[in-house]
Amino acid sequence: MRTSITPDLSETLNMPLLTSELAHAFTNAYEPYEYENLRQFLPLGRMNEIMKPKSIVSHLREIWPDGIPTSAVIPSLRDEGDHHEAIGRYICGQQIPATVFASKPDTAMKLFSILVHIEQESAILAFMKEGITDKNLPFQKHQMEGADFHLALSCGKEITSFIPNWNRLAERSFDTCQWQVLSPILQPGDNKKFERYKFGSQTILPFSHAEATPDTNCRVWKVIIDEHHHNFAEPNNAFALKQLQPTHKDWFEWEMDAFERIPLHDHLTPLYATIEHKGHFHLLLPWALGKSLYSMWQQEAPRNSREYWMWFVKQCLGIASGLDCIHDTNLGMSDGVAAQLPYPEDDRTCGRHGDIKPNNILWFHDHTEDKRNHGGKHGEYGRLKICDFGLTRFSKPDATKATAKNIRVTQTYRPPEYDINEKVSRPFDIWSLGCVYVEFITWLLLGGQGISEFDKLRQRESVRPHIRGDHFFDIVNGERHKEPMAVLGTENRGPGTSDDVKKGPDTSRSTWSRLRSKFRHSFLSKSKTTGLNAHDEIPIVKTSVLSVCMPLPYSILRTLTHLCAVDGQITASPQLLPISRRVY
């Protein structure tokens, strides 16, 4: 242990680090930055736990056990009785003599953490003399010559101008370590809109315990963010980080545009922030513990109960209401606000999601606030929310149709007009959502086996020879039809066939058959003036296969609520937006 009095400040700055509880605590405090698997960062929460005044002062006494040499004492410490405690107060941002700063003091905990890590704690005296605190970080690279550089303050003053004994190795070590304590704090945007972040390559994002899920066009990570590094209402500190490749900047812009336009809704997944980092584009979203509706269907179906059916119908109504907010972004506003809006020249308020499917409906079942908002026991099943707006496009009210061949689709849930290259618009989503609802009911009544059987039957029942595909319709041409026909299916198309019902006493299959019929006749209509005919065929006309009289499958959902005997309770829910009767 060094005990001699050093002659000046420069020699004091090169004193070796002594082993202490503080140094040991820092050694174990750094989190692996699992998002890259290469770097570490010091979470603010861990730093705050370690950097207590008592621990700091104790560490300083180990550095200078006999007190700070007289020649090394900076002017602001000369009137202090205990120099160690005075330095500790400086580091912790507590009030110190007014002669030190004219402005309000700031903490130097990050600065001192770096010095502990690179074994240069005694340099705190030089930084204290210059009035340097955490607000001066990061130091900038200055006078770069190849791999060599000098660190400087933002004003251009080089660190070696007041710590002359620091060599290039010390500066490089400081530069590396400063980014480990400067991971950003992510904040919500103003007016509940998301914040857009763009970070330099040196920035270490505060993500730990990352789990990546590969995808065709992007990767979705489950990341844990230290609670001191975000201000979002996520009690478990778990988030979904969707990463798009550098070549997919257009997709990133499209999805941001969708989130900007779509109003907040209980059944639409919100966006917390966008992050550009190292050439990649990221979307920070809430993490759905239950994953997706498709994941739900991989589990055992719940026992048939009035309670669960109430939850199911309410979720279907909520999803329909959320989709309606995409189809008309003004629905999320009050009538007074919407009426007063000065519409811009680019009045694109009519959206089409474009990819409604089970994997794009997230299942949130871990949030206590969801349970509270659902009311009573119904919240224990969670909440379903539409996600993934990468294919969502917006148009003006008088130009909502798009050419089918220019649209990317999920084949199973595409509408019939897509196959004959018709113009498609918002009813595209309604067809897809209807298919999802039919599968959802199949799972509720017949379980996972019913879902699998339904999938196989849809492929086997294709009316076009030698062509197999998983979809909910077939396009046929016949002698009695001048126009192509979209066939929804025969009575045998599905796990609840008439033969099954006759065999009884399988009430689940009987119920499935009745509900399927309700869907065909109430949900999928051929036009706004005539109903579906008895042959389950839809004439494909030039306007649209699905020119529906109501924008969403509200009538079939009302039918389901009657089956649950809770029609008055659910449809009168004040949390749901009203369903408009506009023409698509």
UniProtKB/TrEMBL annotation:
Superkingdom in the source lineage: Eukaryota
GO MF annotations, alphabetized: ATP binding; protein serine/threonine kinase activity
SMART domains, A to Z: S_TKc (SM00220)
UniProtKB keywords: Kinase, Transferase
Region (Disordered): 488-510
Record-annotated Protein kinase domain positions: 179-524
InterPro entries membership: Kinase-like_dom_sf (IPR011009), Prot_kinase_dom (IPR000719)
Cited PANTHER family: PROTEIN KINASE DOMAIN-CONTAINING PROTEIN, SERINE/THREONINE-PROTEIN KINASE SBK1
Protein's name in the database: Kinase-like domain-containing protein
Organism: Stachybotrys elegans
